[in-house]
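Now read these lines:
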Amino acid sequence: MKKLEGKVAYITGSGRGIGRAVALKLASDGARVVVNDLDQEPADEVVAEIKAMGGEAITVAGSVTDDDFAERFINTGIDSFGGVDIIVNNAGYTWDSMIHKMGDEQFDAMIDVHLKAPWKILKAASTFIRNAAAEEAAEEREVFRKVVNISSVAGTGGNIGQSNYSSAKSGVLGLTKSLAKEWGRLRVNVNCVAFGFIDTRLTTATDEKMTTVVDGNEDSLGIPKKVHQGVSGMIPLGRPGTVEEAAGGVYLFCTPESNYVSGQTLIVGGGITL
C-alpha cells in the first residue's frame, strides 16, 4: 500500500514549477489531489498528468487572494473526495524593490498572497479538521493530518530588495509555529519548508525581458545570466535545486515518518543555512 493512499491533498500554485512537482509527487504515492493555479489550463494539464498515472485529481482555478477562494478551494475538495488530509500552501510570486522605491501596494500584495491567503485556507479547513479529529478521538483512532507552509531563505534570513516578500515569508514561520501549537491536540502536523535558489520560470537564467501578470501586477520572469551564475556559486552544492528536489522536501512532511515532527522549518537550499 502506498504511504499516502486515500489521503486528500490540497496544493495551491500547483499548475507549474514547484507546486506541480509536489502535486505529481504526492499523487505518485497515492494521494488524491486538489490542484490550483491562477490559470485554468496549466492546472487542468497537471490533473490530466495525474489521471494518466492512474490517480485522481480535480482543478480549482483562481487567485488565492480572491475573497471567496479559501472556502471554494476546501469545499470543492471535500465535496469531491470527502476529506482534508494534506494542505500545501505554495502559491506566490515576488514583486521586488528597494524600500525607498516600494509602494504600499507592493508590500500589501506580498502579505496578501504569501501570508493572509494561507491563513484563510487553514481557517476554511478548520471546521472539517476539528470535527473529524473529534470523531476520531471518540473512536480512539489516531489520524494525522499535514500542513506544509512554504517559506523562503528570504524569510529566514532576509534579502536585499525584498522587504515585502521577506516580511511575508517570515510571517509564514510564525503562522506555522502558532498552528502547530493550536492543532497539535487535533493530530495535525504543521511544518514549513523554506526554499533557497530553485530553478523555476521565476529564476531561470535569461538576459531577455520577460514578464507575467499576477493579480493585476506585472512580475518579472527570470534573472540575468551573470546574477544566476553568481548566486549559484554561493550555494555549497554549487547549483540551484530542481523543482523535483524542492518537492522532495515537502513530501517528507507529508509522510507518516513525520508524525512526531511539528512546528519545524526545513531549509531546502543546497547547504545554505540562514
In short: The two ends are 38 Å apart (CA to CA).
